[in-house]
């Protein structure tokens, strides 16, 4: 049992002994961008006649920040912009070719009455001098940032070839207060760290947040009643339901792709095993039956299998079992420790915590499901809790820097790296939402 849980316990001990923090959003810093990032001009959007809008809601600046944060784009600095057109008629393509921009984004927001605005944007290919995309949206003051992230997704998909993840959300757990009297907070923020919302506060540790497939609910583990229990909570209403509070371990919840079932780890029969609960009827079905420790289940995107961590081979490794039950098969053979799996949306890759034989570091790796090839993505000493973005491009995970808990993200090819942190204190247990909340 210690072999599987020791790494998580070490990280929790570091976290519990950390300094205090303030409840706030995440600050994202790009620590490594992809070579050959695409140069693009994103013009601050025109806001003529629009009053009372915070500068942080300028759509052009939000879009530029999104694209820059992906590591795949290199937006021109505002001070280098030769002009500030707000629609295609004002774009002088020769000027932008001189600056080396491959593409240009222009747009404007105009009042429509009743607190509504019309938001238009256009994306142009500078070399070919043609429009690649153009959309118009009706927005209110409260959803400007959400629509701006949607525009970033549209641009990303048009130029990169697969969907963006700027409109998604990240759940994470932060620690507030003093070491003697801490408060643990489960929060949800936009993918760029803005707009943090508190889901739950507790004087006892919170762990293992997991999103429902429609991104409207979170499951998590809480110790608020003096023992581990699993709850499911609606993000909007705050209504929550108790899913499991059996004797012993209640941990590692994971929603099925259809949202009707949940895999979890229970030790109610004496040994930690994987169970599946029907969320409608609460009928419980045991999925594994072994004298080793089986934990950390995660569903494949097609719902046909569950991957989990087990030390049945002597050391923690990843195994798979059919969702209907059956004999488990080992997935990982390289390295002395492989745990805490996360599937890519297409089911082609697994991200997980990996330890190489002879190395004390725990790092994030990805494995190609077809070939079994493993690629190490990070170089930290205690990297954990990987969660793959819903477009499959990035992996967010928890890391430890100088005894401080931070979140980091790395692209699945290792070319782009980000650091996500609170200005003070620690944050852990990240979970990337499957798709935008509506």
From TrEMBL:
Alphabetical UniProt keywords: Cell cycle, Cell division, Periplasm, Signal
Compartment(s): Periplasm
Biological process terms in GO annotation: cell division; protein import
Domain of life, per lineage: Bacteria
Gene3D superfamilies: TolB, C-terminal domain, TolB, N-terminal domain
Main location: periplasm
Gene Ontology cellular-component annotations: periplasmic space
Signal sequence interval, chain numbering: 1-23
InterPro entries on file: 6-blade_b-propeller_TolB-like (IPR011042), Tol-Pal_TolB (IPR014167), TolB_N (IPR007195), WD40 (IPR011659)
Coiled coil: none
Function comment: Part of the Tol-Pal system, which plays a role in outer membrane invagination during cell division and is important for maintaining outer membrane integrity.
Record text on subunit structure and interactions: The Tol-Pal system is composed of five core proteins: the inner membrane proteins TolA, TolQ and TolR, the periplasmic protein TolB and the outer membrane protein Pal. They form a network linking the inner and outer membranes and the peptidoglycan layer.
Family stated for the protein in its record: Belongs to the TolB family.
Protein name: Tol-Pal system protein TolB
Organism taxonomic ancestry: Bacteria, Pseudomonadati, Pseudomonadota, Gammaproteobacteria, sulfur-oxidizing symbionts
